[in-house]
């Protein structure tokens, strides 16, 4: 068992004191979130976004959901805008949420598969970025290699959104945090426990949880830990924001006293040949009611889908504790919130969320 705990030490207390002093001095809080502008930015990883910027994205997303879904308003905020959607990897939620969301806001989405665009094969990523910048206002790319996104962003003159890469999946985490904010009423002080593979979804949790005051406990089998560079940055963030970060190989240790249990596929696209070995290595990691028995009484469950039985059993997945279907729906509202924020100066109309 390996374990790293960043909590309750003098350095954290000292840094937290400095953080609070800085907040008082520079007005961090509601006023600063209200004044945040993300127009023209790209979103490759939440590592590049501050606490206030992530909160702003969640606030805009909640606002659009309230106004469009609940109040039945028509908001053509992206009228006349066009979106290029590059998909090297197939997806249900990413495609449907982005395509329908952009159209709902009055824009025109264009879906491009590897058969349509031949990214990096018949045409370089550099040339593709420059060409699409002349056609579209924004590009979402779901790719194998994160370096492809970095090349696109370097050469494009329009915002680039990471629809998933081998290193990060930021748009999934925005949906997860909006779902938890809706359910619990606030994110600050929640404990999220990841039980599974050290993958791109986990990396995005690690780059954002501390910024929202969320404690993060991670259980991965030996050899399946998160990237070391991501761990190092997550350690720094946990110290900076005064949150807890735990790394272990024991699922029950990670689940102990947690508010939220999270897992994901153990065999991602491109890892099919490793399936037999991975299922053996992840033995004991299935989330069940027994796993939840050591969590807090109000524990809930998240999974970004598609789900397989070995990752979580039906008793949890279809229980009242499962938030997976509201989580899936929120993929739409958060990608809409992100696109609106990157393309416009939209100001939310609903009261600011409690974080």
From TrEMBL:
Entries under Gene3D superfamilies matching the protein: Aspartate/ornithine carbamoyltransferase
GO terms (BP aspect): citrulline biosynthetic process; L-arginine biosynthetic process via ornithine; urea cycle
Domain Aspartate/ornithine carbamoyltransferase carbamoyl-P binding: 41-182
Pathway: Nitrogen metabolism; urea cycle; L-citrulline from L-ornithine and carbamoyl phosphate: step 1/1
Top-level class of the enzyme under EC nomenclature: transferase
Organism superkingdom: Eukaryota
Compartments in which it is found: Mitochondrion matrix
Residues in Aspartate/ornithine carbamoyltransferase Asp/Orn-binding domain copies: 188-341
Quaternary structure (record): Homotrimer.
Protein name: ornithine carbamoyltransferase
Annotated gene: otc
């Amino acid at each position: 068992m390996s374990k790293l705990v960043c909590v309750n030490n003098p350095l954290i207390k000292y840094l937290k004191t400095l953080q609070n002093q800085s907040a008082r001095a520079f007005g961090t809080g509601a006023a600063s979130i209200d004044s945040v502008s993300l127009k023209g930015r790209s979103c490759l990883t939440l590592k590049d976004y501050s606490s206030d910027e992530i909160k702003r994205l969640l606030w805009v997303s909640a606002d659009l959901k309230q106004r469009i879904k609940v109040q039945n308003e028509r908001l053509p905020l992206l009228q006349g805008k066009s979106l290029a959607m590059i998909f090297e990897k197939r997806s249900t939620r990413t495609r449907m949420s982005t395509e329908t969301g952009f159209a709902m806001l009055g824009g025109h989405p264009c879906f491009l598969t590897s058969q349509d665009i031949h990214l990096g094969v018949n045409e370089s990523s550099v040339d593709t970025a420059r060409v699409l910048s002349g056609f579209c206002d924004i590009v979402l790319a779901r790719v194998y290699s994160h370096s492809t996104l970095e090349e696109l962003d370097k050469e494009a003159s329009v915002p680039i959104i990471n629809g998933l890469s081998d290193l990060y999946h930021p748009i999934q985490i925005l949906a997860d945090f909006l779902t938890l904010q809706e359910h619990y009423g606030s994110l600050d002080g929640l404990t999220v426990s990841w039980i599974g593979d050290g993958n791109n979804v986990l990396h995005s949790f690690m780059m954002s949880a501390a910024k929202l005051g969320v404690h993060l406990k991670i259980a991965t089998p030996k050899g399946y830990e998160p990237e070391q560079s991501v761990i190092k940055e997550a350690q720094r963030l946990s110290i900076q924001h005064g949150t807890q970060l735990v790394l272990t190989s024991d699922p029950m240790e990670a689940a102990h006293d947690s508010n939220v249990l999270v897992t994901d596929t153990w065999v991602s696209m491109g890892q099919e040949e490793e399936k037999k070995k991975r299922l053996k290595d992840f033995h004991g990691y299935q989330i069940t009611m027994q796993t939840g028995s050591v969590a807090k009484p109000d524990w809930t469950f998240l999974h970004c889908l598609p789900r397989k039985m070995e990752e979580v059993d039906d008793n949890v997945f279809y229980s009242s504790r499962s938030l997976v279907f509201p989580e899936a729906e929120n993929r739409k509202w958060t990608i809409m919130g992100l696109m609106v924020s990157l393309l416009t100066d939209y100001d939310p109309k609903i009261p600011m969320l409690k974080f």
